[in-house]
C-alpha cells in the first residue's frame, strides 16, 4: 500500500467507512495511516465522538475527551498572528492545524452537553466560545490572505475553489455547530457568555453546516449527520419552526437523508433518521420498519442498533403493547452502560402496566445498584421515582400513569397517530378513576399528559382544562420534588396561548414556567423549549 499518511482523502475515507461499513474498518484504515498525522487523528476523534453522542456511555465519553485533549495538544491554536512561513502551502497547513485545535474544543463541549445539567451547559458553552474564537481568527486570516493574493492576481480574490478552500471548508463544520449549539442553549447557561458578547445564530449555523456537507472535506459526513439530527430530532424536540406542523422539518430531513444515500447507500445511521422522519408524519408503523432495517443491518454500529431498539420499544408503548416493550428495555439495561437504571425503570413500569407486578417489583428493587452516575439527571429521576417502590410494588394504574409521564417528558406523544392518542387518553381516564384520591402527584401527572394529548389533537379548551388541574396541585408536587409536573403544565398553558394567538398570555405563562421552578431534573430541557418558544414571538 502506498504511503498516504499526508493525504486528507484518507481522513475523509475513514469517516465515510464509519457510515458505510462500520467502526472496525474505519478505525483500521485511519490507524494504519496515522503516524502522528493530525488530520487523521482528528478523523479518529470525530469517529469516537459520533459514537459517544449516539450512545452517551460515560466511560466512552471520558475516553474520547482525554483523546481530544491529546490531539489538541499537538496543534497550535495560539492567539499569535499567522507566522510568515514563505509559502502559501505552509500557511495552509498551519491554519488546518488550528482548525483541528478548535474542533477538539468543540467536540469536548458537545461531550460535556450530554450531562444535560446547567453547570454542564455552562462549561460546554465556555469551550464553545474558545473554539469560536479560533474559527473567527482563522476566517480573518483567510480574508487577509485572499485579499493579498487578489492584489497579486490583478484583483481576482481567491474563492472557495482556491488552495485555501480546504481551510474554509474545514472551518464550516465547527463554525456551524458553534452557532447552532449556542442558539439552542438555555438562557441560564448563556448568561456568562452573553457578558462577553458571545451568542449564536441558528440560521448562520445551518448555512455553514450545509456548506460543509457539500464539500470534499473529511467533516462533510459529520455535517450531514448534524443536519439530520437537527431536522429529525432537534426541531420537534424543541418546537423550532413547527407552528404549521412538521412538514418543513420532514422535507429538510428527507433532503439530507437522500444526500447521504447518494454517498453512503442505505447506511444504518441514516436509515435510523429516516425512521425519525416517519415519526414526524405520525406514522409509527413505517418508522418501526426503518428502525428494524437499521438495527438488523450487518454494518450497523452497536450504538445505532441500540438506538433503534429504544425507538421500537417506545412504539410498542404508544401501541399499549407493554408486554413487547418490557423485554426490549431489559435488553438495553443489560447491554448499555449509559443508564441501566433508567432502562430498568422503563422495563419495570412496562411489566407492571402489563399486570406482571412481581417481576416489576424485582426489577425496581435493583435500580439503586444499577445507578452509577448519581449526578446524571436521568439517574436522579429514576432513583427518586423508584424509591417509593422498594418495599411496595406499583399497581397497574400507577405504573401506566408513570410510564405515560415519561412518554410525554421524552416527547414521544408528539409522534403518536390520532388513534394512538385517543387510545392513550381513554386508558389514562380509566387509570385516573382507579387512582386513590390521595395520590395527588399521580393525578397531576395524569392530567398533564391528558392535557398534552388533547393539545396534540388540537382540542385546546380540553387541553387547557387538564393543564390547570395539574397546576392546581403545584404546592404538593413541589413539596414532593415533582417540580416537572407544574413546570411543564405551565409551559403547556403557554403553548396553548401561542396556538390561539394570545401572545401576551403566552409570554406570561412561559415566564412563570421559566422562573417559577428550579433545581429539577428536566429543567435544562424545558428551559431550552421556553427559550425557543419566546424567540418565536419575534420571528
The shape, in one word, is globular
What separation lies between the terminal Cα atoms? 56 Å
In N-to-C order, the SSE pattern is HHHHHHHHHHHHHHHHHHHHHHHHHHH
Structural class: mainly alpha
Sheet with most strands: none
Question: What is the secondary structure topology, with strand pairs?
Answer:
Elements lengths: L7 H13 L2 H11 L4 H18 L2 H16 L14 H26 L4 H35 L12 H20 L2 H9 L6 H12 L6 H19 L8 H18 L3 H13 L3 H13 L5 H17 L3 H14 L4 H14 L3 H8 L2 H4 L6 H10 L9 H14 L8 H17 L5 H17 L3 H13 L1 H6 L4 H17 L2 H13 L7 H14 L3
Provide a concise account of the structure shown:
With 539 residues, this protein is an all-alpha fold.
Tell me what the structure shows.
This protein is mainly alpha-helical and 539 residues long. It contains 27 helices and no strands. Helix 10 packs antiparallel against helix 11 and helix 20 packs across helix 21 (418-434).
Which key phrases capture this entry?
single chain, 539 residues, mainly alpha, disordered N terminus
